[in-house]
Amino acid sequence: MEIREEAAYLSYETIRGAGGLPVGTSGKGMLMLSGGIDSPVAGYLALKRGVDIEAVHFASPPYTSPGALKKAQDLTRKLTKFGGNIQFIEVPFTEIQEEIKAKAPEAYLMTLTRRFMMRITDRIREVRNGLVIINGESLGQVASQTLESMQAINAVTNTPIIRPVVTMDKLEIIDIAQEIDTFEISIQPFEDCCTIFAPDRPKTNPKIKNAEQYEARMDVEALVERAVAGIMITEITPQVEKDEVDDLIDNLL
């Protein structure tokens, strides 16, 4: 009951609104989008807080297939339901992964791979006027998501990194993925560039000085520049279901 000067109001039900903030009111962020369960959920949660996202996806053909690329694009299309058109940025990553594989010890392959991804995403962010980098890291879920690994990977940038699912367990993330209809796409059995060269025993507590020592064997800046120069950008739009199209046509006739 709410009593005011002019009247008394009785209510018996609370109806929740959409929640969140209008997309774009919080600025632009670059979403590091793999084909997994976590990163689309992270993108959705960023959209919910008003962040206009662009999806950055790393592809390593021929090690990764066209199916893996389509999977990432399909996940992006699912996210357009919550924020409109999204720019999908495909990054050629084969050369870098081959270079890391050839010149770094196996235990550090994942750490160096993620450091390169972070550098490239940050370079794209700078060119495209983004404010933050967003990813789907969940603390302790895999070797590259320990606090020590995050520190070693973060060391290559001063840009804020937003991790919307960092404190969630897998079941909580899956619940959201099912709610936003990305789960069934995410579990399709296509490899991504984080799994093709995954070591048997990755380092869970990598040291920054060691990572820098191994990177000194490579021309890091040239590799990053070539990857950024080779990006392909596709605008992903919401998909209108066939039944909706048929209904629109019927209404016009």
UniProtKB/TrEMBL annotation:
Enzyme Commission (EC) number: 2.8.1.4
Primary location recorded for the protein, binned into one broad class: cytoplasm
Keywords: ATP-binding, Cytoplasm, Nucleotide-binding, RNA-binding, Thiamine biosynthesis, Transferase, tRNA-binding
GO BP of this protein: thiamine biosynthetic process; thiamine diphosphate biosynthetic process; thiazole biosynthetic process; tRNA 4-thiouridine biosynthesis
Catalysed reactions listed for this entry: [ThiI sulfur-carrier protein]-S-sulfanyl-L-cysteine + a uridine in tRNA + 2 reduced [2Fe-2S]-[ferredoxin] + ATP + H(+) = [ThiI sulfur-carrier protein]-L-cysteine + a 4-thiouridine in tRNA + 2 oxidized [2Fe-2S]-[ferredoxin] + AMP + diphosphate; [ThiS sulfur-carrier protein]-C-terminal Gly-Gly-AMP + S-sulfanyl-L-cysteinyl-[cysteine desulfurase] + AH2 = [ThiS sulfur-carrier protein]-C-terminal-Gly-aminoethanethioate + L-cysteinyl-[cysteine desulfurase] + A + AMP + 2 H(+)
GO cellular component: cytosol
Pfam families given in the database record: ThiI
Entry's Gene Ontology molecular function annotations: ATP binding; CCA tRNA nucleotidyltransferase activity; tRNA binding; tRNA-uracil-4 sulfurtransferase activity
InterPro entries from the UniProt entry: Rossmann-like_a/b/a_fold, ThiI_AANH, ThiI_N, tRNA_STrfase, tRNA_sulfurtransferase_ThiI
Listed pathway(s): Cofactor biosynthesis; thiamine diphosphate biosynthesis
Enzyme class: transferase
Residues that coordinate or bind ATP: M32, L33, H57, F58, R114, G136, Q145
Localization in the cell: Cytoplasm
Coiled coil: none
Domain Thil AANH: 24-219
UniProt xrefs under PANTHER family: TRNA SULFURTRANSFERASE (PTHR43209)
Functional description taken from the UniProt entry: Catalyzes the ATP-dependent transfer of a sulfur to tRNA to produce 4-thiouridine in position 8 of tRNAs, which functions as a near-UV photosensor. Also catalyzes the transfer of sulfur to the sulfur carrier protein ThiS, forming ThiS-thiocarboxylate. This is a step in the synthesis of thiazole, in the thiamine biosynthesis pathway. The sulfur is donated as persulfide by IscS.
HAMAP family assigned to the protein according to its UniProt record, in alphabetical order: ThiI
The name this protein goes by in its record: Probable tRNA sulfurtransferase
Organism of this sequence: Streptococcus mitis
Lineage start: Bacteria, Bacillati, Bacillota, Bacilli, Lactobacillales
